[in-house]
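quick one before i forget lol
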Amino acid sequence: MTGGRGGAGRRIVLWRHGQTSWNLERRFQGSTDIELTETGVAQARRSARLLAGLKPSAIVSSDLRRAVATAAELAALTGHTVVSDAGLRETYAGEWQGLTHDEITARFGEQYAAWKRGEPVRRGGGELETEVADRAAPVVLEHVDRLPEGGTLVVVSHGGTIRTTIGRLLGLEAAHWESLGGLSNCCWSVLGEGAHGWRLLEHNAGSLPEPVLGDDT
């Protein structure tokens, strides 16, 4: 997907929520509404102080509590009202939700292996990754279209949803989305608007982006 109708030179910061107890237990959350731990709140506050330095133009968030609480830390520093949207929720994964990684591989080994190979899999009978992108990417683009020239949109979401959204916006085939590594809690990726569409500028970052100085800029 290319940039929309708004101003040129825009950026999208896709920010994963802070730590939850299920993250610590390696338990698949999916669309289950799990709160942040105290550590997760501290992570969100630290990251928000950094991201506020980008002077974001707008903030949009998944409506799940772990994302809403993360977004609230940045809103408190910037004065922006957070727009919540269910389209940015994590992948619904049916029977996988609530299971640990070991339980998933033991009970759904073939399904898990197929997913890791990049095959279209309804994990636990839930959503395909392409269906997640179908609902999440349009939400992001809708808000990007409202940005001024050079504006920055912060999207607070979940690891799987962020990966599928990045893959869709970059125009990658779904089979290759797994090549985008995961995001740590409260880390982010940055997409920049180029002459031919969106470019991945930063991935799984925990510090502010630095200008790229070199022959490939």
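fyi Confidence is low (pLDDT under 50) at residues 2-6.
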